[in-house]
Design a protein that fits this description.
By secondary structure, this protein is an alpha/beta fold. It has 14 helices and 18 strands.
């Protein structure tokens, strides 16, 4: 049995803790750490078996090193803020412990998704004899594995990729985000970006849209082109890719509120002076909005996230759509969380499980599609995220 340190006690951290606790034969000893230990303690009370908790400032590398040296985990699962990725990677490097996260590093003062900062750790992790697995959530994460699975079993080359993310749930709030508001709003208000014919092309925020008919009774929804981090690694690792795009659905109400907030400056990430103190508007807005973890008992409906891929096999054109449908209410019954947290937390547990069992192994820094997709796809069906595929051609 292995020991795992989970850093982060938000909605995703709670799901990771629940799902790890369900697999005691792999996750033998669990510690949940966060800046606010009371959040960890509250999660621990809901779990089916005892786990340890600790207070941790993950921005403080020496403090993280001390906790790792005290607990001696085999793996650190980072579900804290993306701003903290590099600090936690530094601590893992110093202590020789494997690392996993669900979102790539993003500097606090710049809304820019890029793996370059973390890829730069590859040689150091390789020399240390440890592994870092990046983006083991759903998107990124499961979507990367869907691509790897399709490349292994369906295609010689994948020419076109559209990752499509639909949250058809309704929480009844006028405006709320289903994961960290600061990260969500930074992501949505950034310029769109996609890959075509060997180069990155940009669009104005939310200026491109398409309609897509989602399965599972969800139906026709309007999707908007965004930039999402998994595109950066997939265009490097998918054979034959000519175009790669990411799409996400938003309700008209969400977009209306977001536009007003943006127009009055509440989505700004630079500090302003207020009564002699520096205040970052988006962080103040985050404090005013509902905690995403509080939306679990309120949210009804489903999510559908999948990869629509077109390419060739043995010289013939082929189209494959691999997707998962997740029910908000079913997630809450199981782990007291809505489906957005669930679909991120379950893949984090699965990625950690595969690392701890040795089914996924390597020295250095890796993205999900670089691993064998089959054991991950098998575990998705087993641990609450069943997938389906539609193949034509």
């Amino acid at each position: 049995m292995k020991k795992v340190l989970i850093i982060g006690a938000g909605g995703v951290g709670a799901v990771v803790a629940h799902k790890c606790a369900q697999v005691p034969e792999v996750f033998g000893d669990i510690m949940l750490a966060s800046r606010t230990q009371s959040k960890c303690d509250a999660i621990a009370k809901e779990l089916p078996r005892p786990v340890r908790t600790a207070a941790l400032d993950a921005d403080n590398v020496p403090e993280t090193i001390q906790l790792i040296q005290s607990f001696l985990p085999d793996l650190v699962i980072n579900v804290a803020l993306p701003y903290q990725d590099l600090h936690i990677m530094d601590a893992c490097l110093a202590t020789g412990v494997n690392y996993l996260d669900t979102a790539n590093y993003e500097p606090p003062d710049e809304a820019r998704f890029a793996y370059a900062w973390q890829w730069a750790y590859h040689d150091s992790f390789k020399e240390r004899g440890i592994m870092a697995l990046l983006g083991s959530g759903f998107d990124p994460g499961a979507t990367n594995v869907f691509c790897a699975y399709a490349q292994k079993h369906h295609f010689d080359e994948i020419h076109q990729l559209d990752i499509i993310d639909c949250n058809a749930g309704d929480h009844g709030k006028p405006f709320a985000t289903n994961f960290n508001p600061e990260i969500n709003i930074r992501e949505v208000t950034a310029r769109g970006r996609y890959w075509e014919h060997g180069e990155w092309l940009e669009t104005d925020p939310l200026s491109w849209s398409m309609n897509f008919d989602f399965p599972g009774g969800i139906g026709l929804k309007k999707c908007y082109l965004l930039y999402h981090e998994e595109l950066e690694s997939l265009v490097r690792n998918v054979t034959g890719i000519k175009r790669a795009r990411f799409w996400m659905t938003f309700s008209d109400t969400y977009l209306m509120h977001l536009k007003v907030l943006e127009n009055v400056g509440m989505t700004r990430i630079d500090p302003i002076m207020y009564h002699g103190r520096e205040v970052i508007p988006i962080q103040f807005l985050k404090a005013m909005l509902p905690d995403p973890a509080s939306l679990g008992p309120l949210t009804k409906g489903k999510t559908c996230i999948g990869c629509l891929m077109k390419g060739v096999k043995s010289g013939k054109e082929k189209t494959v759509f691999i997707y998962n449908i997740c029910d908000h209410e079913a997630c809450f019954r199981e782990v007291k969380a809505q489906a957005i947290s669930y679909t991120t937390g379950v893949p984090a547990m699965i990625g950690g499980l595969l690392m701890l069992t040795g089914e996924w192994a390597g020295n250095g820094v890796f993205n999900m599609e670089q691993m064998d997709p089959d054991p991950f796809m098998e575990r998705m069906n087993k641990h609450g995220l069943p997938w389906q595929e539609v193949v034509t051609g």
